Amino acid sequence: MQPSKEITIYDLAKALDISPATVSRGLKDHPAISHATKKRIQDAAREMGYRSNNFASNLRRQKTNTIGVMVHELNSSFITSVLSGIEKITTAAEYDIIIAHSSEDYKKEVANASNLFHKRVDGLITSLAYNTEKLDHFQPFIQKGIPLIFFDRVEPQYPGTKIVIDNFKAAHEITSHLIQQGCKRIVHIAGSLKRNVYSDRLKGYFKALTDHKIKPDETLVIENDLSEAASVEAAQKILAMNPLPDAVFVSNDFAAVVCMQTLKEKGIRIPQDMAFAGFNNDAIGRYAEPRLTTINYPGVKMGEIVASHMISHLNGQTNIMQTSTVIIKSELIARESSLKKGASKK
């Protein structure tokens, strides 16, 4: 079966025996067209299957009313909540979003950036991939004056708008919490230290140790990609340490739960033998046994703030390059996995 021909305003005009200009105005609810004529036009459009060509119209105006959103992964409750916040604001402002994800790969991020650029997005919101080192692939946006906002995983040297939490402060707080539970030999499992989120968390961890008169020990820092396999391997490295650590602070909740479960299977009691803390407040931490201590920062709010800054700029109300870093508040959520003082000794 052959697909039906796309209906145009000229087809509507011919069917209604009126001018194409009148049809166009009627579809746009122009006040110069009578209510009766508008109804005839809109009824005919619905019956004949007419679809407005917003894409062509927007191109004539040098605007597509679309915003590109490029994230490093999609299987994350944090990223999902950020996207929800972005979508809420952009929909209210009558913008569509095009979502691309790099799957933590720099080359895919470069390809996605090029694809979104050629789709003529009006702006780009992005969180960097695990192994991104250079930002050359964003230069076409900057050269064309297309607004660019980074969130969560950002390049600190980028002079434009960045939406983040204070990762240093949050890591300092969670490490201090572990120390207050009596822990002194604390392992930190970090993601790629090329990324601001993980390098800042490492700095906060070291500073908390120093502030509590505990000498930082770099042999207790494990850097990996925070995948399931890497988390199992990290647990094996921990088991090989002598003496064993009394706490583990992991840079995300998924990796923390995998590592914790692997250690439990080897007879390590959590938190009696080893306290545990993660980061991000993903759902997995709430259902782990014991429930995981973590850092919460509101993804929906971050998405709303990111999108609001973008819409504000697209409406000519702000200059993206004159807005630097926006810091969103985070909070420690202490659960059973780290509460050594209240834990049973059995």
Automatic annotation (TrEMBL):
Keyword line? DNA-binding, Transcription, Transcription regulation
What Pfam families does this protein map onto? Answer: LacI (PF00356), Peripla_BP_3 (PF13377)
Q: Which GO terms describe its molecular function?
A: DNA-binding transcription factor activity; transcription cis-regulatory region binding
Name listed for the protein in its UniProt record: Transcriptional regulator, LacI family
Q: Could you tell me which species this protein originates from?
A: Filimonas lacunae
Q: Can you give the residue ranges of the HTH lacI-type domain?
A: 7-61
Q: Which SMART domains match?
A: HTH_LACI (SM00354)
